[in-house]
Amino acid sequence: MANIVSVQSHVAYGHVGNGAAVFPLQRLGHEVWPVHTVQFSNHTGHGAWTGRVFEAAHVREVLAGLTGRLPCCSAILSGYLGDAATGAAVLDTAAALRRANPAALWCCDPVMGDVGKGLFVRPEVADFLAERAVPAADIVTPNQFELERLTCLTIATLDDALAAMAALRTRGPRLVVLTSLRRGDAPADVIETVVADSDGAWRVATPLLPFAQPPGGAGDALTALFLGRLLLGLGPGEALSLAVSALFAVLDATYASGADELQLIAAQEALVRPQRLFAAEKLASSPSPACGIVAKVRTCFETAGGKPPASSA
Predict the structure, then answer these.
(1) Which helix (H) or strand (E) holds 180?
(2) Domains in the chain, please, with CATH?
(3) Would you say 166 and 196 are in contact if contact means Cβ atoms under 8 Å apart?
(4) How far is CA 3 from CA 28, 93, 116, 227, 257, in A?
């Protein structure tokens, strides 16, 4: 069991942000200290919503109140930030956590956009994530759009994805999880998740469920499930297999029910013991990126917040 600070958005109705991360972590046996960056009535993807983004000073004040408890904290998990000043508060807390517990991890979900939606955060938030958060984090969990934006590389094949992940690791994080991969050289009805570190890379493939509108929060839940399994002592491949298998069970229950939100409660047993297990395939050794790619990624980081690759601009 680990203690985890989780700094993310929160909604009254549904499961995104902390609403998608806290319960899965608790079901895995962890204590979670949630700190909300926003409080909305529901996910903004539903259209009408109320609530507000909390001021950075408020988030910083809450985080400061946890300072004396950081020595017994194992990780900080960050997701949707709201504004760059809130990100600075998270960065400072991660630094304080490492001073209090050098073995602690910062798992950063660089929430900034998605395929088909584009960038949906303020430009200064994307800048903060690229320039300060990603280099300082131990684990980074971008989706395909975010990985492309952070590296300025186009991802069309598995080799492209591995090269981009390797390039991103040269900027600081020791472990990168690509939370969703759709590529032209794979079946159209499959979606993949890939994790890579210095020891190699692992891929998990699952069926792509035919949602008319996929529910929000899947990436938030996956990141939490992966971190939760790592903190139980599993390696990256096994942690990814169990995390993806649990998320697929939740998504499958959601699709079967016709609900517009993740069915985390109804499918909660699968969070701990998924009945259908999708194995992690060990790939060839995670490649060292070519010098030209490293230089391109460095330039991308110097161009605040990265930029979309030419093919997706």
Answers:
(1) strand 175-181
(2) 3-312 (3.40.1190.20)
(3) yes
(4) 12, 14, 36, 12, 33
